[in-house]
């Protein structure tokens, strides 16, 4: 059961993005997006991974984040150049990451902070290989930094983030070992160890590391009061965790209610997200101020900031507790 949950965890945003892609894109775009198996959303651009291992992108493209060899904005999906056999994708602020089935990682788009991991700071309109990485099994894109989990349970990081990292090529996150899953927030990282504990490092200005203080650190610390965790997700300055029993926990920034505990009070340690049970997937994003969850019965919940209607409940009013999204066909 746990393996099944791990395999499907952290994909709810991708599922929802694919659904709304099919609903709102033109006929030609729908054809291009057919057979999408996962997706990722950056800052005003989108990525989808198709079943044939190719990656497609649309939206803003000023830094080459669509990976099509140009810097021209596209309002229909275009293929990311030269990428095949891709198994996972992730999107940062204005760059993309892809993991191929040979364990290599590829990146494209903005590189002013070294987030492409190719030991330069030069933007790229087409995919380049992240240097020095092999046997990678999972990737995560933070706002301007990348994470990779290797088969041996070690975590590698590159790019730049406040109190996190400043490197144009991957370096090992010590002393993390025996890691089975990762997530990247705005300027912080999360890792689940095989023993079900969660570890966090980076910016902690609003308690997003869950260590009962607001001291930032580049050294991974164990998040307090969490056990049997199977999935993690990270927002701009807050974090989420899902345990084996389907319960959801959150900590960090809560100004917009993104912790879903019924308050707008910052929390420096994990608290229960209200009124959720039997959850199998959770999601947020490195620049997100809202959260999503999917239950085993197919119900989607959302909470947090709603200034652009991202909670999907027909209003623009934020919510500090989960609400059901009832308009998905």
Automatic annotation (TrEMBL):
**Database matches in InterPro entries:** Ran_GTPase-activating, RCC1-like_dom, RCC1/BLIP-II, Reg_chr_condens
Repeat recorded as keyword: yes
Q: Which PANTHER family match?
A: REGULATOR OF CHROMOSOME CONDENSATION
Which SUPFAM superfamilies does the record associate with it?
A: RCC1/BLIP-II (SSF50985)
The protein, known as: Regulator
Q: Does the keyword Lyase apply?
A: no
Which residues are in the RCC1-like domain? 31-326
The cross-references to Gene3D superfamilies, in alphabetical order and at most eight, read: Regulator of chromosome condensation 1/beta-lactamase-inhibitor protein II (2.130.10.30)
User: Which keywords accompany this UniProt record?
Assistant: Guanine-nucleotide releasing factor, Repeat
- One Pfam match, given by its short name, reads WD40_RLD
Q: Which domain of life is it from?
A: Bacteria
């Amino acid at each position: 059961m746990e393996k099944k949950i791990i395999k499907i965890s952290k994909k709810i945003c991708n599922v929802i993005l694919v659904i709304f892609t099919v609903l709102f894109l033109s006929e030609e775009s729908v054809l291009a997006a057919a057979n999408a198996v996962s997706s990722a959303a950056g800052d005003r651009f989108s990525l989808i991974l198709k079943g044939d291992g190719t990656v497609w992108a649309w939206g803003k493209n000023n830094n080459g984040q669509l990976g099509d060899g140009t810097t021209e904005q596209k309002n229909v999906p275009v293929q990311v150049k030269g990428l095949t056999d891709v198994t996972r994708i992730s999107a940062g602020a204005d760059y993309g990451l892809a993991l191929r089935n040979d364990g290599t990682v590829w990146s494209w788009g903005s590189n002013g902070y070294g987030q492409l991991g190719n030991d330069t700071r030069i933007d790229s309109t087409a995919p380049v290989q992240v240097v020095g990485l092999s046997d990678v099994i999972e990737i995560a894109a933070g706002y301007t930094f990348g994470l990779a989990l290797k088969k041996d349970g070690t975590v590698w990081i590159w790019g730049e983030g406040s109190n996190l990292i400043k490197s144009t090529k991957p370096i090992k996150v010590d002393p993390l070992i025996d890691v089975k899953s990762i997530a990247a927030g705005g300027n912080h990282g999360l890792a689940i160890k095989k023993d079900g504990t969660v570890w966090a490092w980076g910016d902690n200005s609003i308690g997003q590391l869950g260590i009962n203080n607001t001291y930032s650190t580049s050294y991974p610390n164990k998040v307090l009061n969490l056990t049997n965790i199977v999935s993690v997700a990270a927002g701009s300055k807050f974090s989420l965790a899902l345990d084996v029993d389907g319960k959801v926990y959150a900590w960090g920034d809560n100004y917009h209610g993104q912790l879903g505990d019924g308050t707008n009070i910052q929390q420096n340690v994990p608290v229960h997200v209200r009124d959720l049970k039997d959850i199998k997937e959770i999601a947020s994003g490195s620049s997100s101020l809202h959260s999503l969850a999917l239950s085993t019965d197919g119900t989607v919940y959302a909470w947090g900031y709603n200034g652009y209607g991202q909670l999907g409940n027909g209003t623009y009013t934020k919510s500090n507790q989960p609400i059901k999204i009832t308009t998905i066909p």
